[in-house]
Amino acid sequence: MTRLYLPTSSLSAEALAQHLLGHKTLAINLATEDGLTGAVVITFDKVGDSDDAQHWSRLCTVANALQSEFGFPAPAVSISGANGYGLWLSFEVPVPVAQAQKFLELLSKAYFPDMELGAVSAPVELPPCLHQSTGKWAAFIHPGMGASFADESGLEMAPPIAGQLAFLTGLHSISEVQFLSALKALQQLHGAAAMDKMDNIEKIPPSAHVATSDNLLLRDATLEDIVNFLHSKNIEPTFRHLIPR
């Protein structure tokens, strides 16, 4: 988690442990004091009392586009513990907050123009953590599990930390060249003025870490897929649930 998302020295080891254990949920700023951010999260919340999974389908559309159109490595996916999902992007080289915000605004204009976009500088709750309002757990998930959380985006019990780390182990950060290339492409798409450092950036081929078409997020995983994935990380999954009283 610290490798991909948390700024150096943003939290003490003790504070992070309290957060992950559900003793105290913290709102964490992904940006540094000098105006840089190494990660952003895009939230996709369920709209009103809708019974459909439109928010999940929209996340899949964006995640697939980031990988197939811009060559980004696969992002992390989380459930909020309340009513939605998070799409987590990690930058290999921290980028200015204003530049990251511009990227998200252009991405929103292209793929989810009717959805409210949060500020990059706003604090976020890093999974796994206990959602204070619902009493359910936010957690990183295998992307293939996403559709099953469309109605209730939270876990009744704390997810095993080893399993959470397994979902993140194979993920990679977006390189500076990949990010600037995608930003330039989005600016050209919307007729925006090019920013500094981008005049010589050409569209690059997909990263070696980008998912193939068979592994993009719209492909739902079976229970066997997920168990095999965890076994490949030497983790024995435990599927626990609470029986309603």
How would you characterize this protein structure?
By secondary structure, the protein is of the alpha+beta class. It is 29% helix and 14% strand. The protein contains 6 helices and 5 strands. The chain has helices at residues 13-20, 54-68, 97-111, 161-169, 176-190, 223-232; strands at 36-45, 76-79, 84-96, 129-130, 137-141. It has a 5-stranded antiparallel sheet. β4 (129-130) and β5 form a beta hairpin. α3 (97-111) crosses α5 (176-190). The longest helix is centred in the N-terminal third of the chain and has 15 residues, at 54-68.
- The SSE order reads HEHEEHEEHHH
Q: pLDDT under 50 segments (min length 5)?
A: 194-206, 210-215, 239-245
Number of strands: 5
Q: In percent, how helical is the residue content?
A: 25-40%
Q: What is the overall silhouette?
A: globular
Number of helices: 6
The residue-averaged pLDDT reads 84
Biggest sheet record = 5 strands, antiparallel
- The strand order across the widest sheet is 1-3-2-5-4
Secondary structure category: alpha+beta
Strand content: 5-15%
| Radius of gyration, taken over Cα atoms and rounded to an integer in Å | 18 Å
State the separation between the terminal residues, measured CA to CA.
35 Å
